[in-house]
């Protein structure tokens, strides 16, 4: 606990400040986020008719709900499941409305604060470092993840090189790990990013898991050895660093970046709607206060611009782009922005089919797979479509566990099984790349 203990005579005066500091740094504390989610509910609703969908959209807007699924109110439609996080002061109004209109619903979480506190154990029981080193079965703060990256850069210089591709809006470094055996020969590469959306904490946990597994099994597992010998992996564990940090310190359900707007007080842009591919069309919002705000112009977010620049520069040898999100249990490929199949569909489709089967073989967890538009929903300006349009032939987005029982609050207990099964899918896709399909 390096944040504890300031041995000084001014200790007493420091104490209140220190406690406040601790509260912010340790969401494992029993007053997580100052109890701001006490009494909030998460409700699943299924509008069965167009009228019901219309009525839901209206009340969502009125009550300013935090939509968990789908990501924008415009995507609420007849027959689609919607999960909403409703603040405690609005839940009465929503429930009354639902009873009155007879819309089908189910309460997923009675008290969000309680779920949040149960999911991560208390700091005293929580060991951020296991005896044998790093604990990969807890969620890590941005600072911890960056320290971990620096550490690996020093201790595994044979396989890992850490570098920065730019700065975030708030001035944080955008770090990437280049993983793979160094070789003078030309090598193809795979890009992996996690944490485009801040509240999807299982993403960064998976990126860390992937690196751990690679280092741990490079010598013993022929598949991993082949992967690291024949390819480079560019891994960005936390894409949206500002947002991720904010989701630890202020708002657990923050999704966007943290950039300011010149005309509105609302902050942030959806970093997965900010790419120059059918930018700000269907499935994206022009309003700065919306969770799917596309930004003032494409690549307005420094984080998006930095990654886009990197991919543009290296697109000749980057053969695959993988992006990790949550939650839905899906493996998605282009297009997101339109209902159409991509050219060379069969190679991508068979890669997805095999990956999903490999994933399921571990614990029986089922993933749906297909074009993002028809499998999840239509969204424009996404990183996956952009990567595909810019010449990277294999582009996928994973929506990791679960399907709504815990949603964004996937307990730390489930990090290991989730990452273990996902690992198989990623290895399967990667091996597919090394075969004949273009
Ligand atoms: C609930 O409280 C928030 C903040 O205190 C306020 O902005 C919002 O309007 C309230 N909602 C309702 C439905 O009263
Ligand atoms: C990673 O290590 C190399 C030396 O092995 C060093 O040159 C580089 O600056 C390090 N990266 C970062 C981001 O510190
Ligand atoms: C990929 O998964 C399929 C099952 O879907 C399996 O038959 C195949 O052996 C796997 N390939 C690799 C390289 O893991
Ligand atoms: C489709 O595959 C052919 C070769 O089979 C390749 O030349 C072409 O570039 C591929 N197109 C795309 C969009 O990946
Ligand atoms: Zn996401």
Which features would summarize this protein structure in a list?
438 residues, alpha/beta, disordered N terminus, 13 helices, four-stranded antiparallel β-sheet, 14 strands
SSE inventory with pairings:
Layout: H1 11-25, E1 41-46, H2 50-63, E2 66-69, E3 82-86, H3 88-101, E4 104-109, H4 112-119, E5 129-130, E6 133-134, H5 142-155, E7 160-167, E8 173-179, E9 188-194, H6 202-217, H7 222-230, E10 231-236, H8 241-249, H9 302-314, E11 318-326, E12 330-333, H10 345-363, E13 368-371, H11 372-375, H12 383-389, E14 394-400, H13 415-433
Parallel strand pairs: 9-10, 9-11, 11-14, 12-13
Antiparallel strand pairs: 1-3, 1-4, 2-3, 5-6, 7-8, 8-10, 12-14
This protein binds 2-acetamido-2-deoxy-beta-D-glucopyranose (4 copies) and zinc ion.
Characterize this entry briefly:
It is found in: Secreted, Extracellular space, Extracellular matrix. The chain has 438 residues and is α/β, with parallel strands linked by helices. It has 13 helices and 14 strands.
Structural write-up:
Its cofactor is Zn(2+). This protein is of the alpha/beta class and 438 residues long. The chain is built from 13 helices and 14 strands. Strand 7 and strand 8 form a beta hairpin. The N terminus is likely disordered. The structure holds 2-acetamido-2-deoxy-beta-D-glucopyranose (4 copies) and zinc ion. One 2-acetamido-2-deoxy-beta-D-glucopyranose binds next to helix 5 and strand 7.
């Amino acid at each position: 606990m390096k944040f504890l203990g300031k041995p000084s005579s001014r200790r007493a005066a420091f104490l209140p400040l220190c406690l406040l500091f601790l509260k912010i740094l340790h969401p494992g504390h029993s007053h997580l986020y100052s109890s701001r989610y006490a009494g909030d509910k998460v409700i699943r609703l299924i509008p069965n008719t167009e009228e019901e969908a219309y009525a839901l959209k209206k009340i969502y807007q009125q009550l300013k709900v935090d939509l968990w699924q789908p990501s924008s109110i415009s995507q609420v439609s007849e027959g689609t499941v919607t999960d909403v996080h409703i603040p405690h002061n609005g839940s009465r109004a929503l429930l009354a409305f639902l009873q009155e209109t007879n819309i089908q619903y189910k309460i997923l979480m009675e008290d969000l604060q309680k779920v949040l506190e149960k999911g991560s154990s208390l700091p005293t029981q929580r060991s951020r470092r296991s005896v044998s080193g790093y604990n990969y079965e807890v969620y890590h703060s941005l600072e911890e993840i960056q320290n971990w990256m620096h550490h690996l850069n020093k201790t595994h210089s044979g396989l890992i090189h850490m570098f920065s591709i730019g700065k975030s809006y708030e001035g944080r470094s955008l770090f990437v790990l280049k993983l793979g055996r160094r070789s003078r020969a030309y090598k193809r590469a795979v890009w992996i990013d996690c944490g485009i959306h801040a509240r999807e904490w299982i993403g960064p946990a998976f990126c860390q898991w992937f690196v751990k597994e690679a280092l741990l099994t490079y010598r013993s597992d022929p598949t991993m050895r082949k992967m690291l010998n024949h390819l480079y992996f560019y891994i960005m564990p936390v894409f949206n660093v500002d947002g991720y940090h904010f989701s630890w310190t202020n708002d657990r359900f923050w999704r966007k970046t943290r950039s300011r707007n010149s005309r509105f007080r609302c902050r942030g842009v959806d970093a997965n709607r900010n790419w120059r591919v059918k930018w700000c069309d269907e499935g994206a919002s022009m309003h700065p206060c919306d969770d799917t705000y596309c930004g003032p112009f494409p690549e307005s977010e420094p984080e998006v611009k930095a990654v886009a620049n990197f991919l543009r520069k290296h697109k000749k040898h980057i053969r695959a782009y993988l992006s990790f999100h949550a939650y839905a249990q899906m493996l998605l490929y282009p297009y997101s922005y339109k209902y159409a199949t991509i050219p060379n569909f069969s190679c991508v489709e068979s890669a997805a089919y095999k990956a999903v089967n490999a994933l399921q073989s571990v614990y029986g967890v089922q993933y749906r797979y297909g074009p993002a538009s028809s499998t999840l929903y239509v969204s424009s300006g996404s990183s996956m479509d952009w990567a595909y349009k810019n010449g990277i032939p294999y582009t996928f987005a994973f929506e990791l566990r679960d399907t709504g029982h815990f949603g964004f609050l996937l307990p730390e207990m489930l990090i290991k099984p989730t990452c273990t099964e996902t690992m198989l899918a990623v290895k399967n896709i990667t091996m597919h790349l090394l075969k004949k399909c273009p």
